[in-house]
Every structure is written in C-alpha cells, then in structure tokens.
Amino acid sequence: HPRDFTPVCSTELGRAAKLAPEFAKRNVKLIRITLSIDRAGDHLAWSKDINAYSGEEPTEKLPFPIIHDKNRDLFILLGMLDPAEKDGKDMPVAARVVFVIGPDKKPKLSVIYPATTGRNSDEILRVVTSLQLTAEKRVATPVDWKEAKKLFLKGVFTKELPSGKKYLRPTPQP
C-alpha cells in the first residue's frame, strides 16, 4: 500500500478484513505490507477509519498484520514498485501486488495491479479456493469458475468436438 489514509488502500483493506473469515476457513494467513512514511500509530488510527467505512466497529485492530517498509527493502526485493506512478519526490510508489504462497513455501500465484487500480479480493479468494481444490483433487477449474460449479477432470479427454480432440469433460465439484 502506498500510504495510510488513502481511498483505494482503505477500501482494499476493508474488503480484506470482511473476507478474513473466508480466508481463515481455507487456512490462509493475510499479511499486508505498507510502503509509507507513516508510523505504527498512524496505522492504528487508519484501522479505525477502515473498519468504520466497512460498516464494522471502528476498532484499531484489523484481522491481519500490516508490515511497515519505509526503506522499500521488501518492495524492491519482491518487485512491488510501480514505475509508472511516482510520489512527490519522483520515486516509484507501491504497486498493488498479490502473492499466494503454498504450504510448501513456494509461490502459487503473483498478480501485479497498477497503483491506480484496487485489487479484487473476491477473485483472490476464488483463486485460492481453486489452488487448494486442484492441489488436492485431479481437477482443473475453467474460466469464471465459482465454488460448487462444474470443473474439468485433469488429464481426462472424452467429449467429441469439431477439432476431433477430446479435451472438454465437465464434472461436478468433488
């Protein structure tokens, strides 16, 4: 997040806080990294605004940690700066990056949104659900897949198509 008390960041954190129970059901830990000159006290005050805007009790606590990276060490290491957007000192601001790390500590997904575009938390949750399902079962999720909708058996090809290739076989979610 580029700064505390900014509108896009506030809406992102508010939505992430609302979806935190859904991520927790999937054993997912949310962590937010903030690149700013803001202090821990500012983060706490900002949390009240985020919760109030999201319709929650305006407490200082969010259901995930916010890691402060004033010196940009993590942002540089992880490639999380948006070269197209600059701050008042002509320095790149934080891009809106999502990393999903699997239980094996390896990256399973990385998405970079420009600093001007908020992340889609529902899509992140959908992808996490798909990653977990496809890691456990021999299935693949099609375009726009939602939980409990039909998916494909991985490696099974049976449907007749004009191409003569038998690669589409939808099946109910296990």
Overall description:
- The protein has 174 residues and is an alpha+beta fold.
- It has a domain at 7-118: Glutaredoxin (3-Layer(aba) Sandwich), CATH 3.40.30.10.
- Helix content is 31%, strand content 20%.
- It contains 4 helices and 9 strands.
- The protein has helices at residues 7-25, 40-53, 73-77, 121-136; strands at residues 32-34, 66-68, 81-86, 92-94, 96-101, 107-113, 139-140, 151-153, 170-171.
- The strands form 4 sheets. A 3-stranded antiparallel β-sheet has the order 7-8-9. A two-stranded parallel sheet has the order 1-2. The chain has a two-stranded antiparallel ribbon with strand order 3-4.
- Strand 5 and strand 6 form a beta hairpin.
- It is elongated, with a radius of gyration of 19 Å.
- The chain starts with 6 loop residues before the first helix and ends with a strand.
- The mean pLDDT is 85.
CATH fold title of the domain at 7-118: Glutaredoxin
CATH superfamily of the domain at 7-118: Glutaredoxin
Distance between the termini: 37 Å
Helices, by number, come to 4
- Runs with pLDDT <50, length 5+? none
Fraction of residues in helix: 25-40%
Overall CATH class of the domain at 7-118: Alpha Beta
Q: Which whole number gives the mean pLDDT?
A: 85
Secondary structural class: alpha+beta
Share of β-strand residues: 15-25%
The CATH architecture of the domain at 7-118 comes to: 3-Layer(aba) Sandwich
Shape: elongated
Cα-based radius of gyration, to the nearest Å = 19 Å
Q: Give me the count of strands.
A: 9
